[in-house]
Input
Amino acid sequence: MSKIACFVEKYNFTDPREEAALQNFKLAAERSGQEFRFLFRENIEDIPNYDAVFIRATTDPLFTSYIVSKTAWELGLKVIDDPESITICGNKIHQYALFEKYDVPRIPTVFLNKDDLHHKKITEIFDELGKPVVIKAPYTSFSRYVEKAACETSFRDIAKRFFKKSDVLAIQKFTPTAFDWRVGVLNNDILYVCKYMIPKGKWKHGAKLRGKPTVIWGRTVSSEKKDMPTGLREVALKACSVAGKGLYGVDIKEVNGDYVVVEINDNPSIYAGYEDSMDKDIYQRIIAYLSE
Amino acid sequence: MLVVSNIDLKDDLNALKPSQFLESSIKDTTININNDYRYLKTGYYVSLHAEVLGNNVIPSCENIIDSSRTPILLLRAARAKIPTLPFLVTDSVKKIIAELKLPVVVFAVNPFIYEGYQVAKNKSALYRALKSLGMNYKFTVCAQPLMGKIFTVKSFLGKSQLEDEQISAITEKVYELFKIPICKVHVQKTEGKAFLCGLEPLKENELSKSDLELISKEIMLISQQGEHIGV
Output
C-alpha cells in the first residue's frame, strides 16, 4: 500500500467540478488499496510520512507548492509535479528555449530583454512576426499575463507592466484559431485529448468581456484518444519530452494542417465532466503512476 | 572559461555584460557574476541561457531557486551536514508558539519579499511578523528558533571578510553546496555554535571597492586553476 498526499490549497475546493475531480482521485486511490489524504499548507512537515505527493495547488518556483515538491523530491518520494517540471513549465522563456534547442514545432517566438525595449527592436519584432503580436510574461497561467499588441504604444505599455516581474518576455506571432488542442500526457503517454474552444470574438481560451473583470471560458470538448491525429500525438509527446516524465497539459494549435505547440503546462486542470469525459481512467492512471 | 558579469570587474577578466551573453551562443564553462540572482531577474536568465546552451555554469538555475527559498536552503544544507536549526513552514502563530517557543526568527516564503527577516520575541510581534511577511496571512513563512545572535555576512565565492572561523566555515560550505557567487548569508551564533539561517541577494550599492577586488581576485584564481570549478 502506498500513502499518497495530495497537496491542495483552499481555492482548489471552490469550483464544484474541481472538487469532484479531487474526490475522484481519492476514490481511485482507495479502490486500488492506496491511502490518499489531502495535505494543506498547515501540515507540510508531514511530507516525510508519505510515499508520494500529488500537487494540485497552482505551481510556480516562487509558490509554496515548489517547497512541497522539492522537499518531497529531496526525500526520495514520487512526486507530481516534480521540481524540474515546475521550473521548466513555470517559465515560458525556459520552455521555448528548450523547444528551439530540440526543434519542437512551435509558434514563432522571440525573446525580449528589458534593456532592449526601444523603437528599433520593436520595429524588428513587428517586421519579423507581423501585427499584432502576442506578449507573454513567463509565468502566465489560466490565460493571464498574455496580451495582444498591434502598435508600438500598446507594445510598450504591456511590456513595461510585464517587465516589473521578469527581465525577459516572450513575443509570439498572433495565431488565431477556433480552438486549441489540449493533450494530457503522463509519463510519455497520452492521457486524454480535448479541445479548448476559444470564446466567440476572442482569441484566447479565458477572455475578459469588454469593460468587465469577469473571465469567460470557452467550452471544453473532449475527444476519443484513438481518433487522435498521429501528427498531434507526435508533437504533444515531443514537446513533453523536453520537460520530463510527469503529468502535463500541452496546448497545440492546428495551423494549415501543421501542429504547433503553444505551451506545455505542468499541473494541468482536471475538472470532473470536462477533461475526463472520454477517459474516465485518468484518475486511476495517475494514482497508479504515483504508487508504482 | 567565460565570465559574465553585471558589475565592473578588472579588465583582464574580459567579462561579458549579461545582455551581450544573452544575445550570443558561446559554448564554454560559464561563471555568472551578479549581485542579484533572483528568479526571473537577469542573473537567473544568464544561468538559464548557459544551461540551455549546454554550458557548465555557476550558479545553476536549480541552485538559484533553491537557495532563495529558505525552507529548501535549510533542508538541503542540513542534508549536506551544514549546521541548521529546526524550522517550520506555516501561516499559524499558534503552531509556531507550540512547536518552536519564542523568540523566533521569521523569513518570508512568497514571491514578493526576498530580503530580510523579522525577529519576534513575543506573541504580538509574531502576529505582526506573520501579517507583514505573509502579506496578510496569504502566504506561509519560515520560522526558526532564535537562540543567540544573528550575523549577516557578505559572501563572495564563499569568502567572507569577517574574521570568525565558524561563520567563515558556514559561508564556505554554503558556497560549496549552492555555488552562489555573490550573496548575503544570515548565520545565528549561540553558545559557541553557528547555524545557517538564510540567504539573500546583495544590492549593488552594498558592494564596496574592497569587495569588488576580492571578487576579481577569486575569479582570477579560478580561471588560473583551470576549468575545474566544480559545477
Remarks:
- Chain B has a mean pLDDT of 93.
- The interface with chain A takes residues 19, 22, 39-42, 45, 48-49, 52, 61-62, 65-66, 69, 71-72, 75-76, 79, 88-92, 95, 109-111, 139-140 of chain B (CB under 8 Å).
- Residues 52 and 71 of chain B are 27 Å apart (CA to CA).
- Helices of chain B lie at 18-23, 42-53, 61-68, 70-79, 93-99, 123-133, 165-178, 209-224.
